[in-house]
């Protein structure tokens, strides 16, 4: 490979990386707006935190009716994946969406479709945030009271 070919290859790689970063930033902003709208529907305090990394987890936890202390589970490898799935199911239920959408998480472990899964979640979150058909259900985790057990 001569110097001219190396320069062309370097330029192509650089252009690809710049476009990848621009797409990543655009996706982050779009997801921020989607979660801002979801947090607004859920009437949680400080929905603008949706745009701040890590801080966006506080209104997320409030939306799914969990203590913000649960964020600490994200520090532990493997456990963080399990809790992310559980929390996503709770988010889907909170907005009256089918919890089977959480099956998309399977795609995260398949390298060939990983990017498509990220895009699918982005589209799903945008639908949940921007659609007037999707409403927040504050009683999504309500369980009916159990009848008292008969003592003999």
UniProtKB/TrEMBL annotation:
Transmembrane segment boundaries: 6-30, 42-62, 68-89, 101-130
Domain of life per record: Bacteria
Record has Transmembrane as a keyword: yes
Pfam families reported for this sequence: DUF5684 (PF18936)
UniProt xrefs under InterPro entries: DUF5684 (IPR043739)
Keywords from the named record: Membrane, Transmembrane, Transmembrane helix
Keyword Nucleotide-binding carried by entry: no
Listed name of the protein: Signal peptidase I
Native species: Fodinisporobacter ferrooxydans
């Amino acid at each position: 490979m001569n110097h001219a070919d190396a320069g062309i290859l370097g330029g192509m790689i650089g252009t690809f990386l710049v476009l990848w970063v621009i797409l990543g930033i655009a996706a982050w902003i779009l997801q921020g707006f989607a979660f801002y709208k979801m947090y607004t529907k859920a009437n949680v305090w400080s929905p603008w935190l949706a745009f701040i990394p890590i801080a966006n987890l506080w209104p997320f936890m409030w939306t799914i009716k969990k203590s913000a202390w649960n964020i600490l589970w994200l520090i532990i490898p493997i456990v963080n994946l399990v809790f992310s799935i559980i929390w996503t199911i709770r988010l889907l239920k909170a907005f009256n969406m089918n919890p089977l959408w959480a099956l998309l998480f399977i795609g995260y472990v398949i390298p060939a479709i990983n990017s498509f899964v990220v895009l699918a979640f982005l589209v799903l979150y945008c639908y949940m945030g921007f659609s007037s058909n999707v409403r927040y259900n504050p009683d999504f985790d309500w369980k009916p009271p159990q009848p008292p057990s008969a003592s003999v």
